[in-house]
Structures are given as C-alpha cells and as structure tokens.
Design brief:
about 80% helix; mainly alpha; single chain; globular
Length: about 220
C-alpha cells in the first residue's frame, strides 16, 4: 500500500531528524563518548524509564525484524539493524516497514511458541521498567510536566525520549494495521499498554500473540 509506505518513510525521516537535532550537538562536543551519553541519558528516573523502555523495544524490534525479514525473503536486513543501532530505532524500523509494504501481501506468520515466549518475556521487561523507574516518580508526587522536563533534561536524554515517542507512533500504526489484517481482536489492549504502561509492554505483547496465533508448521 503506497499510503502506508509513505507514512512509514515519513516516520523514518522524523526519527533521523530528531536524532540529529537532539543528539548531534552532543556528539559534536569534546569528550563525547558512549559511556557519557548513556550516563546522561539515564541521569534520573523519568529519563531512565523512557530510556530503558526504548532498550527493550530495540531488542524486540530487531528480533522481529530479522525473523520477519527472513520469512519474506527481504534483503539487506543488516542495514535496518545498523540504522536502529547507530541513528535511531525509529529510523531503521520504519524504513523496514516501508520496504515491507513493497513485498507481496504476506500470509499469516507461522506459529512459534518459543518466539512467543521470548516476546512475552520482553513485554514483562517493559513492565519492569515502569516498576523500577516509573513508580518512584509517581510515588514522589511528580506531575506530568515535571516528568517531561526531567525526561528531556539534556541532549542524550531527549534523544532517547523522542526516539521512543516516534516508535510509539510507528508501533500503534503498524499494530492496528497488522492486527486488522490478521483478524486479531482487542487491539485496544496493546495500545493501552504501550501508552499507559510501557511501549515495550504493548508492542512485545502484540508480537507474542501474533507469533502464537498463526498456523503451526
């Protein structure tokens, strides 16, 4: 579908642009390093909540990308993994989805209980990020405005936070489209989970059900 491909390409471009806008000044500064970037990105509970959520999303997306890409016989999967790692998760993931739209209409995925279990574990890890870093924020009485301010406290933290926001848009667009194509029910549950709890919780939960509901080998 041309419209969906354009939407995904747009989101990929947004992912690249935000990474360059927020992270570019940091990497251009003296003393920039992966270790310091990580330290600044996880400097407080709000930024750690979103940063850890993005890490789990990164694992879930890359795992699905490789499995799905091989299932469809797509080439150059390493390029999407590289973009996810070096630029932004939103950049590589959305580009992969755009290229996937060019492939023949895929049939339902083959049921894979082991893969489904892994996705369920990643969904639980997403929930854990909220419990470990998010609940202390809630318990402290911090409001939404203060949470956002701390999540965007510096360039590295803002880079991961915005990447997660773009991934949220990608995830919900894809889950609703893919879920309807496969006839999956209660899609609102995944949207609620990835909005109110953690993106990894809803996305990996959707992937787990998707991997379990297809025909068996």
């Amino acid at each position: 579908m041309r419209t969906m491909a354009i939407a995904y390409l747009t989101l990929s471009a947004v992912g690249v642009a935000t990474a360059l806008f927020c992270g570019g000044p940091y990497w251009a500064s003296p003393g920039a390093s992966v270790g310091d970037f990580t330290a600044q990105a996880f400097v407080n509970n709000p930024s750690s909540t979103l940063g850890a959520d993005l890490v789990v999303v990164y694992v879930a997306v890359n795992l699905w990308l490789v499995v799905e890409g091989r299932r469809l016989g797509m080439k150059h999967l390493w390029l999407y993994l590289l973009l996810n790692t070096v630029i932004a998760v939103a950049a590589g993931w959305a580009l992969f989805l755009a290229m996937r739209e060019r492939e023949p209409e895929p049939g339902p995925p083959v049921a894979n209980p082991v893969l489904s279990f892994v996705y369920f574990a990643l969904s639980a890890a997403g929930i854990a990020t909220l419990v470990i870093w998010g609940l202390p924020c809630i318990a402290s009485g911090a409001g939404l405005a203060d949470f956002v301010r701390q999540a965007f406290v510096n360039g590295p933290a803002a880079t991961l936070s915005i990447d997660l926001l773009v991934c949220w848009a990608i995830a919900n667009l894809w889950m609703l489209t893919e879920g309807r194509r496969l006839g999956m029910g209660r899609l609102w549950i995944y949207v609620l989970l990835d909005t109110a709890v953690a993106l990894a919780a809803g996305l990996a939960g959707f992937l787990a059900i998707r991997a379990r509901s297809g025909p068996r080998r």
